[in-house]
Amino acid sequence: MKQNFIFLDEMLPGIRWDAKYATWDNFTGKPVDGYEVNRIVGTKELGAALRKAQKLARKQGYGLLLWDGYRPQRAVDCFLHWASLPENNLTKNRYYPNIKRNEMVTKGYVASQSSHSRGGAVDLTIFYIGTGTLVPMGGDFDFMDERSHHAASGLTEEESRNRDVLRHIMESSGFEAYCNEWWHYVLADEPYPNTYFNFCIA
After folding, report:
1. Is 87 a catalytic residue?
2. How far is it, in rounded angstroms, from Cα 143 to Cα 77?
3. Which segments are annotated as binding site for Zn(2+)?
4. Residue of 36, 103, 171, 181 with catalytic role
5. Averaged over 168-185, what is the pLDDT?
6. Distance set, CA 126 to CA 9, 101, 135, 154, 163 (Å)
7. pLDDT of residue 89
8. Enclosing H/E stretch for 55
């Protein structure tokens, strides 16, 4: 582990996580290069901001569930390679039903240099502390479609409100939202704004 990077669960007692890219449950259909364990990593600054978000969420009856934090550059390269391959339709219906693989980059869902690789970004949602069930957001993680945009049409009032709740929690804790993905937030004051790390999560 690089200096100043940590496993976020060690800094955030009670946090839930599901590191999708360490599993077969992601848009590539298999574990992604650089993810050797199902843990979420980030900078200590990211952890401190998430601690604020966790406290704000708890006051409203929610907990945080993390899907991704630090992402090795080799994982980003793996995404780009995968997006260039011929379609096999194994994950298309679930993750990108209305676009082609190679449009993931041009439409802003996959970046050649990701804020995740700087250690200052996180993908997450909220759950009800009382039941443990995820809060309805009108779409799943990594659903590459306009429905995932913050200003998406066709959401129920509840789904739209829930996205606003998450956004308010995160923006009040020092994060900035990404317009195309309701789950993606970046630290406004990143410690490494120009550095893209490549060490494995192990």
Report:
1. no
2. 20
3. 116, 123, 184
4. 181
5. 97
6. 16, 29, 6, 21, 9
7. 95
8. helix 44-59
Which pair of structure tokens corresponds to residue 114? 């990701």
pLDDT in tens, 36-71: 999 999 999 999 999 999 999 999 999 999 999 999
pTM over 0.90: yes
Work out the burial of residue 44: count CB atoms within 10 Å of its CB; fewer than 13 is exposed, 13-18 middle, 19 or more buried: middle
Rounded CA-CA distance 21/32 in Å is: 5
- d(Cα 108, Cα 19) in Å, to the nearest integer? 21
If you search the block for the tokens 């391959």, which residue do you land on?
A: 85
Q: Is residue 1 scored above 80 in pLDDT?
A: no
Number of helices (H), then strands (E), belonging to the chain: the values are 6, 7
| % of the chain residues with pLDDT over 90 | 97
CA distance 25 to 18: 10
Question: Residues marked as binding?
Answer: 116, 123, 184
Mean per-residue pLDDT for 97-116?
93
Which band of pLDDT confidence, cut at 50, 70 and 90, is reported for residue 3? confident
Please state, in angstroms and rounded to a whole number, the distance separating the CA atoms of residues 137 and 161: 9
132: exposed, middle or buried (Cβ count in 10 Å: 0-12, 13-18, 19+): exposed
